[in-house]
Every structure is written in C-alpha cells, then in structure tokens.
Backbone:
C-alpha cells in the first residue's frame, strides 16, 4: 500500500486567469494525488481563492486544463462539478444562515439524491426512504466534529453558531456532497489557538477516517506544518515553490514574497 | 512579519479551562428569555407555536367548514369564497416568492391564462362544453407551459430582470385579451373589453357545482390539498434546495444544487397553481374579463403573502382572511360605514399603543383628545357657526364637538388640511424624544380632520389609503409578516 504509485486525482495544467488586465493565476501546474493533503500558501492577493473559484467552476479559466480523474471540468456549471466530486468551503463563510444546522447539511445532499417534487408531494415510500437516508447521512457528517455540532444544535439556525462552529459547519456541509476532494479555504481563520489545534487534528482525521483528498489554503504556519504532505507557495498567481513544508518554508523566494508584501502570514 | 518561516514549535494540547465550553451560546440564552413571556396573548402564541402543523390545518378546515352554516349566501360569496381564492393564489405565489425568492410580477397573467382557457373550453364562445375534469388540467398545463417558455427564455434574466420581464408579461396579457382580441374562427378570441360571458358552471363527471355553498366546499378541498402538497414539497430535498438558493444562490450552486433549474421549477409551479385558481375564478364569476387580471389584483395577492410572511404557508391563510375581509368592509358600496371609522381610529390607536414606555401612548392619546376639544372650542367661539356645524358622516354625533367639520364650502379649507398634515408628519418624523410626542398630538388631530372632512366622503380612495396605512403599520411592527420568521442577514 505504501509503495503503490500515487494516483493523480486533480490535475491543473497551464491554468491562467486574468481580471481585466490583472493576471491573477499565471500558467499554473498542480497535481493533487489521491488521499494527499496539499497546502497552498501565499501572501494576501496571491490568487489562492481565485484558484478555488476556478476549480469549482465559479470562474472559467482563460486558458489551461482542470482534470478530475482525467476528465475535464472546464466549462461545467458549479453544481455539476460538485456532483463529480469537488466540494469546498468559503473563506468568507457562506452558510445558509437562516436554515437550521442540520438543514444546511441536508440541503447539500441535493446532487446525490433523486426523489423528484411530485413524489415528494405524494410522500411515496421512496421519499420516506430517501429522506431517512439524507437525515442519517447529515447526522453522520455532523458527528465528525465530536460534540461541537451535536444534539440540540441541529435545530438551531446556523446564524446562532459561534464563528468556529460556523467554520466546522461549512466543512460538514461540503462533506455532505460526498466529494472525492475537499477544498478548504482558510479553515483556521479567525479561530483561537485551541480551536486551531482542533482543526489541525480534524483535517488529519478527514483523510484518515473520511478518505478525502484535501487541498487547503491556510495562513497559519503551525497548521500548514501539522497537516501537509506537500506545500505549494503562490505569489502573484505564479507557483514559486513546491515541496515539503521545510523546503518551502525556508525557500528564499517564499521568504521574500512574504517580506516583500509585508503580509502578516504567520504568527 | 517578524518571524521568518523557520520551523515553529508544534501547537500544544489545549488545557481543560482553555477548551471552549460546550452547551452555552447565544441561542440558548435567547430561547430561555423567550420562555419568560406572560399574558394571554403570549399563551396563545405558545399554543400556536407548539401545535403540530397538521393540527393547525385541521383546525382551520374545521372552522372554515362551519362558515356556510352561520352566514348568508351573499356574505359567504364575498367573504368566504374569495378568502379561499386569495389563499389558493397566495399559496402559489408563496412558492415563487417565498420559497425560491423570485420577484414574479406576471403571476396574475397565469391566473388570467387559467380563466381564459376555461372560458374557451367551457362556454358557448366556440360551442365547446368540456367538463372541468378536462379543462382544469389543460388550463394548468397551459399556464405552466407559458411559464416554462418564459422561464427558459429568461434564464439569463432570472435575477433582477425577471421582475421587468414578468411585469411586461402581465401587461401584455391584459392588452392581448382586452384590446387585441384577434379573430379566430370568425370570432374575437377573447371577446375584447367585454370578455367572454356565460361560462358553464364547474362540472365534474356530470356533477354540477352551482350554489355558493358547493363552490365554497370545493374550494376548501382544493385549498387544503394544495396546502398539504406544498407543505410536503417544502419538506423535501427540493424545498430545502429552494430555501438554500434563497439564502445564498452561489453557495447553493456550489453545494450541488442546480439553481437555475430550481428557479424555473418554482416559477412554473406557481404558474400552474395560478392557472388552477383562474379556472375556478372564471367559473365563480361565470365570465372571463381582462380587467380582472390587472396589476391591482397582483398587488392584493402580494399583500396576502407579505402580510402573512414570505415562506409561511399558515401565514398565507391569515393574510388571505385579513386582506379579503378588510377590503370587503372597505368597499365603497359596503353598507357598514361605521366599520370603516372603527378600523381607522382602531388602527391609529393600535399604532400609538406600541410606543414605549407605556405612559407615552396614554399621554399622547389624552393630549390629542384634549387638543381637539380646545381647538373646537376656540374655532366655535371665534368664527361663524358654519365652521363647526358640520355633521360627521354616518352619525357619531360625539365627534361633532371634537372635530372641526364645516358645512358647505370654505374655500381651500380641505386643501390646507392636507398640506398641514404633510407638514406635520414631516416635522414629527424629524423630531426626537419628547418633542416628537408633543408634535404627534396636532399631527393625529389633523389626521382625524382629514379623515372626517375628506376621506369618509370618498369611499374608493379611502379604502386604499386605509389599507395602505394598515400594511405600513404592520410592516413597521413585524417586518417578517404575521407568521413569518425574522430573517437574520448579517451577524
Ligand atoms: N472577481 C474579481 N474581479 C476582479 N479582481 C479579482 C476578483 N477576484 C479576485 N480578484 C483579484 O485577484 C487577486 C487575487 O485574489 P484572491 O484569489 O482572493 O487572493 P488570496 O490569495 O488572498 O485568496 C486580488 O488582487 C484580487 O483583488
Ligand atoms: Mg483568499
């Protein structure tokens, strides 16, 4: 098992994207292998979130290829890309705030379920069966976070959750789409040291127990070090370094990128 | 950044007291605070909140079934039948606006398509007399089909432009049926301004629905089935997807929900329900006339949904009852003019009563009453008798000593009243604290004068001014509508 050759799951080839004249992603190549955890780091404005927006189909690349298990994702609408196995969280949380916690997770199973509206209105046996499955799956995803999102919290509106719990719910909601690969955009942003520590462990657990491949954007170098198999550094949309955490963190180009833009990337 | 990215120490295990506590957050605290309400109104609200939804529907059906037994035919028609019709229309619009969050201003056109389809297929217009079990599905399909065509052609416009496109559809429909009236098979297709008269009564498998009572019970069944079906739809993956896309369309799309397809589905769904309502309406009126499908009807249907609260099925029923009954009471030819006065003063007193703390409304109302008597006394003492000798419309002689009501024409008195009221409202709104309370006194008195001198004599306008004022009042107090849930936009 340990010696099996790595299977590429997500491949980006020569990806480019510009807004107006501003080149945000510049001829980027990146491979994420199955069951790998890859971190993307880089100063603010480096193009990390844009990279996620390209992979999930929110923007269409000007040039280049995005392949999932060898199939191109370019040009597909976001819901179709998610249905093929790419799920993400948002850096600026985008929960369904006025829906309950469990409804948030249940809603994200739309693409994986089938019962149409007519059968729902008639409450056919198929509806009952599927509805029970949806609920059970939602509870299972929420139980991933220990006691944090359990019990009475299921029926609370999402807006009532603490900031850290909202970040967790975003991850649970992404998991509910049953993806192959999870894209996490700054999962530890705004969390205190304890919560940050929890997230670090959780990301490991997501791979070990959930079996997900993970591409994560993170600013906190403790987290990056704790989780990454591989680290990719971006600056102005260009990949400036790639390798183990030690290699990338000590790479002079990376140090310069951070110093040069006076970014507050680490603590 | 002070630290060069060397190799930082791994994070430490969290200590016991550092770990954030589980089980305490704002929501629990708030629920506990809610639990401390008092009074019968609060008890009633609790009872409502804790009743399961099927119980609520059953209670409504049980109550509604008794209505034909304690009302006369005429009241059952205007109050009963039309309340149910507005409820059915509201249920359909609620899917479009409430569930999916689309601003559909052409909804009334689908209502009209249903009515005209019924009129073409069940009247002597072309001598086709199909039974209702055939025409109703056809009418619903016709409305849905127009919805599909519009939905797909406007797919790129599903955002803000949908309102404009659908508003155009509504206007085009009224024009097409009322003015264009193309000649088909030697006859005006839609009968022009006169519409299509003398439609067949609703006939199901040979059984005719002719009396108001029969129609009422038929509509009650339709509304009950519709509410149940929509309730079930709302509690399915489709319903959740609608709610999700209303909350955040981009996030919904990224969470595997095909947003555009679901929007079109909601739109078409609403169209089909409106089509169904149209057939029933046409059969009730035994005619299809284009002016019955104008913007003013659209406004009433929207008012039903807004008043009840977007997204709330129970709210649609409450909205339909309140709005239809209020509008009927306010009808110019309605023979209860005193009801209007009570509605007017009642609304004002209710709005004032919402001021806090409790002694403010008392002081303002007492001040207004006193102010009126003083003004009346001064005017009576200093001017000719004709200035105060007017009689309030429909009795209420006690008012004659309080409100200044001149007889005959007094130049521009009425116009000055209006201008005075506008100035007073602007002044009151721009003042703060106690100054505002003091300014409220003459403002309220001027409002009463405008009402007594001008509006009571002008039924049509009054009805809508009063109606608008009541809606504004309600929306100020409960922006989410009577039974809607308050939405939190930014936390
Ligand atoms: N929709 C957009 N239109 C124009 N510019 C954008 C847009 N989205 C991102 N950008 C720009 O692209 C650059 C990279 O942004 P982003 O990917 O969010 O960076 P980060 O690495 O901090 O996540 C920034 O300069 C940003 O201003
Ligand atoms: Mg970002």
Residues:
């Amino acid at each position: 098992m340990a010696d099996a050759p790595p299977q590429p799951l997500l491949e980006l080839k020569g990806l480019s994207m510009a807004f107006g004249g501003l080149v945000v992603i510049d001829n980027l190549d990146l491979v994420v292998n199955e069951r790998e955890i890859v971190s993307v780091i880089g100063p603010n404005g480096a193009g990390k979130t844009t990279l996620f927006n390209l992979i999930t189909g929110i923007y269409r690349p000007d040039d280049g290829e995005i392949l999932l298990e060898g199939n191109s994702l370019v040009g597909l609408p976001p819901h179709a890309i998610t249905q093929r196995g790419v799920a993400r969280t948002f850096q600026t949380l985008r929960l369904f705030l006025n829906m309950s916690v469990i409804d948030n997770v249940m809603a994200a199973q739309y693409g994986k379920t089938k019962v149409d509206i007519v059968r729902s209105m008639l409450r056919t046996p198929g509806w009952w069966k599927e509805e029970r499955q949806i609920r059970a799956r939602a509870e299972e995803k929420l139980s991933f976070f220990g006691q944090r999102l359990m019990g009475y919290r299921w029926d609370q509106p999402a807006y009532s959750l603490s900031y850290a719990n909202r970040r967790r719910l975003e991850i649970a909601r992404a998991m509910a789409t049953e993806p192959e690969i999870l894209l996490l955009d700054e999962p530890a942003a705004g969390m205190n040291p304890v919560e940050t520590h929890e997230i670090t462990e959780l990301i490991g657990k997501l791979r070990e127990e959930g079996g997900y491949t993970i591409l994560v954007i993170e600013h906190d170098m403790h987290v990056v070090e704790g989780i990454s198999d591989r680290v990719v550094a971006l600056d102005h949309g260009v990949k400036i370094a790639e390798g183990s955490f030690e290699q990338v963190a000590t790479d002079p180009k990376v140090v310069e990128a951070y110093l040069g833009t006076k970014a507050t990337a680490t603590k | 950044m002070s630290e060069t990215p060397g190799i930082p120490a791994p994070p430490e295990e969290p200590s016991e007291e550092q770990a954030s506590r589980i089980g305490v957050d704002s929501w629990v605290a708030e629920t506990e605070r809610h639990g401390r309400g008092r009074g019968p109104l609060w008890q009633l609200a609790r009872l409502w909140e804790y009743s399961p939804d099927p119980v609520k529907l059953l209670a409504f059906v049980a109550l509604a079934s008794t209505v034909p037994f304690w009302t006369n035919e005429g009241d059952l028609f205007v109050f009963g039948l039309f309340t149910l019709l507005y409820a059915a229309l509201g249920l359909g619009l609620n899917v479009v606006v409430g569930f999916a969050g689309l601003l559909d201003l052409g909804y009334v056109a689908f209502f009209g398509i249903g009515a005209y389809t019924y009129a073409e297929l069940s009247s002597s217009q072309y001598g086709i007399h199909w039974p209702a079990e055939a025409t109703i599905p056809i009418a619903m399909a016709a409305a849905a089909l127009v919805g599909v065509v519009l939905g797909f052609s406007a797919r790129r416009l599903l955002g803000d432009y949908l309102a404009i496109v659908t508003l155009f559809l509504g206007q085009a429909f009224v024009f097409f049926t009322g003015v264009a009236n193309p000649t088909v098979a030697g006859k005006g297709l839609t009968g022009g301004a006169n519409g299509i008269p003398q439609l067949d009564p609703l006939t199901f498998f040979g059984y005719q629905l002719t009396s108001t009572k029969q129609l009422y019970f038929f509509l009650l069944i339709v509304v009950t089935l519709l509410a149940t079906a929509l309730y079930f739809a709302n509690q399915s993956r489709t319903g959740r997807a609608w709610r999700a896309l209303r909350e955040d369309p981009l996030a919904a799309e990224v969470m595997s929900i095909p947003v555009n397809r679901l929007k079109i589905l909601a739109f078409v769904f609403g169209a089909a329900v409106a089509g169904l309502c149209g057939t029933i309406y046409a059969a009730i009126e035994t005619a299809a006339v284009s002016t019955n499908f104008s913007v003013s009807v659209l406004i009433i249907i929207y008012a039903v949904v807004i008043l009840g609260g977007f997204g709330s099925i129970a709210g649609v029923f409450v909205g339909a009852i309140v709005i239809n009954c209020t509008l009927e009471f306010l009808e110019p030819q309605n023979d209860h003019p005193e009801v209007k006065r009570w509605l007017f003063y009642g609304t004002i007193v209710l709005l004032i009563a919402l001021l806090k703390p409790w002694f403010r409304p008392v002081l303002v109302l007492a001040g207004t009453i006193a102010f009126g008597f003083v003004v009346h006394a001064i005017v009576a003492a200093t001017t000719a008798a004709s200035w105060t000798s007017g009689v309030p419309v429909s009795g209420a002689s006690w008012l004659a000593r309080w409100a200044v009501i001149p007889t005959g024409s007094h130049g521009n008195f009425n116009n000055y009243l209006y201008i005075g009221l506008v100035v007073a409202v602007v002044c009151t709104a721009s003042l703060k604290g106690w100054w505002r309370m003091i300014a409220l006194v003459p403002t309220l008195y001027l409002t009463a004068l405008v009402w007594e001198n001008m509006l009571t004599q002008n039924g049509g306008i009054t009805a809508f001014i009063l109606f608008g004022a009541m809606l504004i009042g309600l929306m100020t107090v409960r922006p989410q509508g009577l039974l809607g849930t308050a939405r939190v936009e930014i936390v």
